[in-house]
Amino acid sequence: MEAVLQTPQNQKVILPHLFEMQYSHPLPKKTLGEFTEKAYDGLRVSEEDYWLNYYELSDLVFEWNNGRLEEKPMSDRESYDLYSWFLRLISQYFDVFKEGTMIGLEIGFKLFVGHKTKIRKPDLAFIHKDNPVQMRPFETSYTGCFDMCFEFLSDSNRIALERDTVVKKHEYETYGVREYYILDRIGDETAFYYLDSKGKYRTLKPNRHGVIKSRVLKHFQFRLDDLYNRPSDHILVKDSVYQKYILVDYQKEFKRAEEADKKAEAERKRAKKADKKAETERKRAEEADKKTEAERERAKEADKKAKAERERAKEADKKAKAERERAKEADKKAEAERERAKEADKKAEAERERAKEADKKAKAERKRAKEADKKAEAERERAKEADKKAKAERERAKEADKKAKAERKRAKEADKKAEIERKKAKAERERADSMEKELLKLRKQLGMLEK
Predict the structure, then answer these.
(1) Distances (CA, A) of 378 to 368, 372, 375
(2) In a domain, 149, yes or no
(3) Residues 169-182: pLDDT tens digits?
(4) Which of 8, 100, 103, 363 is most exposed by smallest CB count within 10 Å?
(5) Rounded to the nearest 10 degrees, how much is the dihedral formed by the CA atoms of 325, 331, 337, 341?
(6) Could you tell me if 222 and 269 lie in one domain?
(7) Which SS3 state, helix, strand or coil, does residue 222 take?
(8) Which pLDDT tens digit goes with each residue over 372-422?
(9) Phi and psi torsions of 179, nearest 5°
(10) For residue 314, what are the domain limits?
(11) Are residues 95 and 196 in the same domain?
């Protein structure tokens, strides 16, 4: 579902990309192959990096949520059918009512919600012609606030569902998106909201006939059940809900054909009456014959016009068949995209295994650091014991000094012993200081490993 549709106010433009033809984009799009293989959803990147490297990726579609990438989920067949039917419906509306510009997939806009910045890529969006910020034809992002946003749910992932039904609803409400449509191909999460006068979203409910009517688009309406039944245009055109904008040209041609048939029938009736009068009124036979011939000519012309109308109807059926063939091709491409997504999951699993190995190595390093702490603690205990011994020696030296007054010879010997003990204590303190320095180095290495 990566079609882009734009219908300017006073100009009808059919973008070829809508029907799987080459998209005329002024800049080449990046592909996933240009980046290192890794898991992207939740990856923290700067806004500048997002615009430069991720915004225009063709393999995956990313939104940016205040510094983190958020990958948009892959579509499934049912969601694509709903998207195609609704896009065809609203495209015909804009062919008739030139109320603004329709924007398709991959076109993003920046929202400021509180103190956070978001970049969202709605599946479809609308810019009203009265919006002060319009989008130029070759711009790849919108700098204003969309008047309407449409999201088509297609993934059973609860995080993705909550993002579209809760998170984006709050963001669009806060930023001022006037209407927000959530279309769920199952129907469980389908919801429609409009912004009231207080800037709060209110539920846009169907009327008693089950019809949803937009408050932004004057004449756009549809039956809620038709989102899931998805009747063809030739059925819709018979419903008064759609007659203002569905197959308008076909309706005009059909009415002209009916009028032509009525006129032809009337002409045939008049011809029969003229024949009867010619039988009974021979005197006026010549005049009547001339009039009858003229009436027959007019009837033939009416038949020709009716036949031409039928031929145009056949051409319209052929075009519809061609559209179905192109839809099948789009399904094949979607299947190829799913296969590429599976390969990306395998590579992400390998990255997680390498991360587990790194955690084991870090744990072993922490154990070795703890052992080093224990050894350093033992060294400190031995240093304390040495200090105690030195203190005791000093006490004995004092006693020796007292005795030295009477016994100088023995005092000199005691001094020598005390000096020897002090040297030993000093050596013990130096060893303790050296062990403390080694401990500090080991703690620094442990800190680096933990980081």
Answers:
(1) 16, 10, 5
(2) yes
(3) 999 999 999 999 99
(4) 363
(5) -170
(6) no
(7) strand
(8) 889 888 888 888 988 898 888 888 878 877 886 888 888 788 789 889 999
(9) -140, 140
(10) 251-324
(11) yes
